[in-house]
Structure formats: C-alpha cells, structure tokens
Specification:
single chain; alpha/beta; Spore Coat Polysaccharide Biosynthesis Protein SpsA, Chain A; two-stranded antiparallel ribbon; 13 strands
Amino acid sequence: MGTQMRKAVIPVAGLGTRFLPATKATPKEMLPVVDKPAIQYVVEEAVRAGIGDVLMITGRNKRPLEDHFDRVPFIEQTLEAKGDHEKLAAVREASSLADIHFVRQGDPKGLGHAVLRARSHVGNEPFAVLLGDDLIHEKDEVLRAMMKVQEETGGSVVALLEVDPADISAYGCAEVVPAGNGDYVKVNGLVEKPAADEAPSNLAVIGRYVLHPRVFDVLEVTPAGRGGEIQLTDALQALATAEGEGAGVYGVIFRGRRFDTGDKLSYLKAVFTIASEREDLGPALNEWLDSLRTPAR
C-alpha cells in the first residue's frame, strides 16, 4: 500500500469516571493541560506525523469536543478588535489543525467496537489509532516510527511500554520476539489485563496503534471478551497468528514520556512537566517547585 498514511481515529466515547465529579458535565478529553485541552495534544501528535484527516468516535456527552475544533466567530472578532493577535492565533489553531470528523459510537461496546465504527471513513488503507487518554510528550514521538514499521512489514503495529510487572494487570500485555534490525519486535501473542503471575512479559500495550484495514474484517466477527466488550486486543491476537495480506502484529517499544490523562496523578505530572518546559511559565514554576522541596528553616 506504500503511500503516506492519511487518516487517524481517536476514540473518545469513554465516560471519564476516574475524574468525577470534574467530568460530570465536562468530557475528560477537555480537561486542560496548562492552557489547551488534553485532546488537542493528541490531534497535534497525529498532525506532526503527517496525518491530515482525523475521525473522533464520540458519545452523547462529547459535544464540547466538536465545539472546540470548530470556529467561534464571536470570540475571534472580539480578540481581533482588541488587537490580541496571540490569543487569536491560539484560538484559531485548533480549528485549522486537520480535517476533523465526528461519528458517535452508539452502543458502548468497547474499544474494538469504536474502531470498527471508523470502517466506512477509513476505507481500505492503513490508519492510526490514538487513544484520547494517552498524551505522548512532543519530544518523544513514537507514531512516525510505528508508521515506518507498518510500511515495512505490511501488518499492524502497537506501541509497547515496559512497566513494573506488578502493574501489568492494568494493561494489554504482549509476548514478543526480536524482529527487523532490533528497532521493533514481532508480537506472537496478546493478553488483555493478565494477572501478574500469568503475564508473558512486562511489555504493556499503550494507546497508539497503526493498523492494517484487515483489522475491520476481524473485528466484525470478534465476540465480546473481557468486560462484555469487543476488545481490540482480541482482534490483534487473531491477526498475530493469521497469514496472508495484513497479517502479523509488530511492536515498537516506547522509552519516552507518556502520561495517562485519565489518571489523576499522571494528569498532574503532565501539567507540571509541560508547564515547567515553557519559556513563559517554566522559570517561575520551577523556582516555586524548588521552594516546596527545600525544608523550611
């Protein structure tokens, strides 16, 4: 298929219960990370990788995401009249990042079902899936590397992260063998949230995927799995042991900074990390953080 990957799918239909009551009326993806909502960082990551078409799989409570990526003439006119061109550019940035589309998931049947809802939009070409909860630091990108592996292998690619073995039960877990020139691995098996003593490794599947369109055919016949949901992990397990075009699953081990913005502590780490590196906020913030670490006399 050897052409530039054009499309990304971002499932954002989850309820965000870990952040209640903050997410009672505000989608978790719209929680601010400094001065941009978390979801904008995810879209920007896809755009940096060369993707210009983004489909969000939404739910009933996600209308604010559509509004955020839309134009707001009144605000723009007000800022322009004030001569506040810096804020005007920031407001317009979200609506000009990419061609962004929205479709509702309907029934909450899991990540695999959400990805399947993208079939008519994606068509017969490889595509990326970025989970809206996972924020990858912009200096530690992994998506381009995954796209390169997909083009080389013709299969599907997952991002893997080494985690404490005691924490593997919170993730999909991969059984792997070396492949390529050592810059990626071949996935022989995937297990969704295994017990620590049953996990084949400490390599966790995190929220970045580059998928061959054959995954749609597999998802169509994948029965509900763990939690009564259609698991993307189960479909990838089937592809890992399949043969023919689009078969095979590979992994890129990510060693950079990744934040789970659905987890309170990880969300706070994202805010402080990004703010501390900004020229306008970093010096004062870092000075304040240092003062907190210095024992009072």
